[in-house]
## 1
Amino acid sequence: MNLMDLARPAEEVAPRLLGAVLTHETSEGTVSIAITETEAYSGAADPASHAYRGMTPRNAVMFGPAGHLYVYRSHGLHWCANVVTGTDGAASAVLVRAGRVIEGEDLARRRRGGMAESSRLARGPGNFCQALGVTAEHNGSDLLTGASVTLSEGEPVPASLIRIGPRVGVSKAHDWQHRFYLAGDPTVSAYRLSPRAKPSHGA
């Protein structure tokens, strides 16, 4: 994975990240997860984006250069990891929703409280971060420099396996077709419509 692959709009990068690998090296060991599900979020044009109303201390990383990690707390419970995309100054990021653990499964399982089923270790954005060991301290990490959290190329994903659908659990612009996932993969999270969702029009 290189900067040229990421310096594009989020909706173009999101399907390209399927099959890519996020790796986190710690004193406990190394966990690598191949990405199987993503969602694209833009800036001012996307009502569901954290950057919709402009830059804040929370979302500042989204406005920075591509290839960095944007980590935020969801509902005060779970950490969520996003790969920053696009050009410097224009907010854009891809939420990593799910993946398949390909290295360090025992460590990922311990982090997930002894979860037995392999396909559920990194299913859902909160579980993905928990299995990978990513928290707020990794916000802003450069994924391309070989630091503790890195993004790399994985096995190529055939275009025939990529499916597109509406985003999960958001109340605004929920019907935008900005969710990308691998067909039939057991690690992909189930689609869930927010009870607060209202019909919208857009990308």
## 2
Amino acid sequence: MTVQPVRLFGDPVLRTPAIEVVDFDKELRTLVRDLWDTMEAQGGAGLAAPQIGVGLRVFTYNCDGVAGHLVNPVWTAVGEAEQDGPEGCLSIPGLSWDCVRARDVVARGWNVHGEPVEVHGSDLLARAIQHETDHLDGVLFVDRLDEATRKRAMAEIRSAEWFTGTAPPIKQSPHPLFGTR
């Protein structure tokens, strides 16, 4: 089991769009294992590679009885129904706010062997797919909050015990790809 440190709000890697995976190799399989181990250890519903300092388009998920990973994911909403409910993030520990998301989505991507994968999600799984894909685009869920909630969220983040107010030092990733991103 290899649990990696989760990057916290303020770390530049969380605001940097990740690049597409082109090599479906042993390093990718190790990255997915590390994401899985870290997500499970932290009790998360999902975890994206940038959250452990790796700038690649990969995430893991485990919610609503459905678990897996997606490489180079894209998602589309199924219908126009929305959900408005609590959302949190391992990179913003201990805090959550209501966030509007599509209620039903279909995500397409690849597995670690380069085989196509399609995931249909509703409710929590749909929220996780959208949240983790946002991480791959350098977007945090606080960016999706309405103005008043976002203002309150930023105040709560600034007063959180874990928030230092300065950019954290760059940590070396154990993965050879973009180790300091």
## 3
Amino acid sequence: MIIDAHSHVHDPVHGHLALLDEAGVDRTVLLGTRPHPERADGLASFRHEMAVLHETVSGAATGADAYETAWDELQAAVAAQPDRFIGFGKVRLDVAPEEIAAQVEREVLGRGFRGVGELTPPPDRAELVEPVLAAAADHGGLPVVVHGYAPTTARDLATLAALARRHPRVPLVISQLGGLNWLTAIELARETPNLYLDLSTAGVVLAVRLAVTEVPDRTLFGSDAPYGDPVLARAAVERVTKPGALRDRVLGGTLAELLGL
């Protein structure tokens, strides 16, 4: 089974399905989103969507309204394509730990999602993720995905690794291979048994090759669509692996085990 470990809700959804079919991807982890760059029809509208993205990944999007629409949109997409989409729900980090725990129960499990993410703490504030990890551990070790590209910092990656060691039952996934800090992300994953790396939007194929070599059982094929492309992301994995067990694990076997598929 080929599973894309990282994608976002598309508008319209059928455009995403066409990309998955072209890439030969069976299923994808689907994350909610506020920005929709695939809707843009020119530079001005694209800049608008990127401004929303910047607000989101910098941790500036707070309040219930910033989440409710994305939760509903994600739930509708998963309900429409349950055989293709595996929903992961984001929760707020700007509330008390007990409310975070309640959101994991209500907005993740209550909506039928299988994991938590993509979390976007403000830069150098990755410690805000810890209540989510505690709640995930209370529910049998739900996978948790945290944004890894800028503005996430190398310090944030070190904090996430420390939190992962504090919550060893929770698979913690750093997305986008840690962005420009990919070498640090790989080093930290080598030292942290429950720290995973998704390879989405990796900047250079050398980083993909090194991650697969150094952390073969905890690297996950991902596209970050619509920002990345499933065809190209799969090609990168196949470029640095040979047909066989390792490639199969990276392209979906490891994630299938994590999710009990």
